[in-house]
Amino acid sequence: METQTIKIGLPRAMLYYRYRVLWRTFFQELGMETVVSAATDRDILERGTALAIDEACLSLKIYLGHVAALVGQCDYILAPRVSNFGRHRSMCTRFESTPDLVGNVFRGSGQKFLSYEVDEEMKKKDEEEGFVEMGKALGCTAKASKKAYKQAKKAELGQHKERVQKYEQQYKKEGMKVLIAAHSYVAEDPYMGRAVSDYLKRVGVIPVRADMVDREAALKRGKELSPTCKWEINREILGGIAMHQNDVDGIILLSAFPCGPDAMVNELITRRVKGVPMLNLVLDSQSGTAGVETRLESFIDIIRFKEGKL
């Protein structure tokens, strides 16, 4: 009798954009199938909004919409608990509470959820240990799970390095360059931040990403702007700005309403990064593309005026 392949659902939101290669490779190495939710659209947002509390950020509402789209389509839906990578290397609390949140919101659905935990500060549990425990929970041996994790980590690091090299080439091109400082799940989501980079390309501006840098180097450079910032991804973005602020004509601080860490860090950036035009663009569920494009058009005109090209 043929054994049925286990299907793992991956919501195309939040940490998916950072860890998609790691997750997909890990499950594939263990002989499992991954099912990814469709790209964000209005329906996804509305479904997630109906499930979230009013105070939830736009990214979380979208995430819940993606989870809802996967319910009943797979054996498990991945909902990791990523708390921190050590002292002063914390993640937003939404990533620490994800398993509890989805377990509660979808408690009557009959859907099973799968998780792994990363908490190096309090529980001394690193990413590899979390993945090995998750593999064992799926019926795999510790040896097979560890091997799958190492292959997955190698693939993830390789993919990130390739993307970083691609963006580094962008800085060498002729033309106006604008640095987008945003979380990957904002910058790459087609219903949120991707519209920003698409518009910049259409009008002949080269968009580059503050988070597309060597992560370890960025964590070190980020201390130049804030030695006390505790959020891991925000620290990487700060480092990316410190590394490339002199290579660009402008910076867009792109965030989803009402993200607490971004609100604090973006205020810090506007106070400490001088000499480069900056636009603070906050996206919410009511924003239309036309409104965003109008602000981007004005920002580009400001840059051109500053450079004497308008």
Please supply descriptive tags for the structure shown above.
310 residues; alpha/beta; four-stranded parallel sheet; 13 helices; 14% strand
Give your account of this protein's structure:
By secondary structure, this protein is of the alpha/beta class. The chain is built from 13 helices and ten strands. The chain has helices at residues 16-29, 42-51, 58-70, 93-96, 98-105, 127-137, 142-170, 184-187, 194-202, 215-221, 232-244, 260-272, 289-306, and strands at 7-10, 33-36, 76-78, 81-84, 112-114, 117-119, 177-181, 206-209, 250-256, 278-283. β9, α12 and β10 (278-283) form a beta-alpha-beta unit.
Summarize the structure.
The chain has 310 residues and is of the alpha/beta class.
The share of residues in extended strands comes to 5-15%
Mean pLDDT: 95
Assign an overall shape: globular
**Structural class by secondary-structure content:** alpha/beta
Rg, rounded, reads 20 Å
> If strands are numbered along the chain, what order do they take across the biggest sheet?
2-1-3-5
| Distance between the ends | 72 Å
Q: How many distinct beta strands?
A: 10
Helix content: 40-55%
Model regions low in confidence, pLDDT < 50 over at least 5 residues = none
Order of helices and strands: EHEHHEEHHEEHHEHHEHHEHEH
Total of DSSP H or I helical runs spanning 4+ residues: 13
Please describe the biggest sheet, giving its number of strands, its sense, and whether it closes into a barrel: 4 strands, parallel
